[in-house]
Specification:
The complex is a heterodimer.
Chain A: H1 22-42, H2 45-69, H3 77-107, H4 112-116, H5 122-151, H6 163-187, H7 193-206, H8 221-227, H9 231-243, H10 251-277
Chain B: E1 4-11, E2 21-28, E3 33-37, H1 44-51, E4 59-64, E5 67-68, H2 73-79, E6 80-83, H3 95-105, H4 110-123, H5 139-151, E7 157-161, H6 169-184, E8 188-193, H7 196-202, E9 205-210, E10 213-218, H8 220-224, E11 232-238, E12 249-255, E13 258-264, H9 269-278, E14 283-289, H10 293-301
Parallel strand pairs in B: 3-8, 3-9, 6-7, 7-8
Antiparallel strand pairs in B: 1-2, 1-4, 4-5, 9-10, 11-13, 11-14, 12-13
Classes of the chains: A mainly alpha, B alpha/beta.
Amino acid sequence: MTVHDRPIEREAPAGRGRRGLAGPSLVAFLALCERDVYVTLRREFLAFLSQSLLQPIFFLFVFGRVLPEIGAAQGSYGTQLLPGVIALTLVLTALQNVALPLVIEFSFTKEIEDRLLAPIPVAWVAVQKVLIAALRGMVGGVLIIPLGELILPGGVDLSSASWPGMVAMIVVGALAGACLGLVLGTVVPPNRITVAFGLILTPLIFTGAAFYPWQALDSLRWFQILTLANPMTYVSEGMRGAFTDLPHLADGWVVLGLVVSLTAFGWLGVRGFVRRAVD
Amino acid sequence: MPLVEVHGLRKRYAAGAAEAVAGIDFAVREGEIFGLLGPNGAGKTTTIGAITTRVKPTGGRVTVDGFDVARDPVAVKQRIAVVPQRPNLDRSLTAMENLVFHAAYFGEPRGARRRRAQEMLDRMGLGDRGADKVDEYSGGMAQRLMIARALMHEPRLLVLDEPTVGLDPQSRLFLWAMMTDLRARGVTLMLTTHDMVEADRLCDRIAIVDHGRIIALDTPRGLRRLLPAQEGLEVTLAGPQPLEIAAEKVDGRADDDRWHARIYGALTPSDLAAAVRDAGRELIELRRVEGSLEDVFVHLTGRELR
């Protein structure tokens, strides 16, 4: 029985060896991205859409349509709500798309191993996960805009929107969520993940200024301060600033909050990942 | 130059814990099959982990093809492939896609990937199962697919962790034939096992590891010589009468019309054959008794359970 009918080729492809390692690593990085995009589009697209959009659709419908309809909220509430729900979708979709697969791949399926053995520094594997999850978050977040047009009574009003601001907030918001997910996915032990998700996701959703403008919390000072600890607050408020001319957390604070959150969680997450990956 | 060099490798997983590997030295020569044999928890998997960049040594140095695993992990990863103990296939992909994407990670040109993947599937007897999702694969098939995947980027060193655990006899024989064949093609193989038959049959050299140290390293035959007083000759003659012979010790018994005996002493097989002929007896079987590798293993590592 022969496994090979030709000798193993010895000539090394270009770029192998001590020099030019960035070349093979870049190739591997892009190939990992290609695999993830392929799986998202070909295998998981409906699952991805429902996981990412179902909850925001209900938030939009119940808070933006039902409550004003029965007189429990003002008709203009939808304008406040939409940027918040986009922020929520960005952050949560990106977060869950890093954290959940990571926990499963590290402990149960061990799928991460083939990536860790690819010719790429281990930290890049973490960065690649963040990037793809952020991309998924962005797709989810952007899709909320047409959904808002369908669901909200007043539709979506983009007349006072800042397009560069929106694009920047969508990209940065999704990255912030993904970095948070990287921390969760690497810090939480696999047997605690359901508990951890329950304990972390609900407060994250409701203290992130998605359903109320931060400015309006003046009368509830302690809660207003508490929300500043949630990275999502900066995404929601930044999004509100980019979408509307309604009062929102000052741009400077939004930028600071996002920079701190990205740096801190990005660093912690990559460090956590490398520790999980290399004993 | 050896392909793998391990110098004074040490690994302690947590401060205060016992050392999983407590100073190991060995070298794997290019083109050989090298076995790491040892009880559970002896340090085999940690040693493999260090060579494959997945475990960071707390002491010592490991190089693959001259590249230090701690300093140049990417260069090392380009030269090695690992077949793990438990399946780690990409379950979102088909068998074919598993191979194709793996090749992509290693920069195999796009056109060549699919062709080579089909070739590997054919060789592993999975030629018509390429479109199946891998969750539908049996244990033996998953393992053959992992080997196919490992070979996609033409590694210099193939590392197999407990490769035949849980395989049916057919899969085991296939795997053994494949490993021998790979060696013939110049691939260096390293495997961990506690299957003595496997180690004996496949490995050119074996390191026996226990308590984080190498306690013996030799060819399977060389290891057997470590057994005290196990050498002797086993002989079967036609006719039930005992053979009169001068030897240290003769354990003989008659069985039907044959005489079986184990003879210990300085006697060589040709001495014994001559004595049989001189006595006018018919020789049916004569073989040298060597202790089994299992005897050696138990002799060196003791009998207590781990």
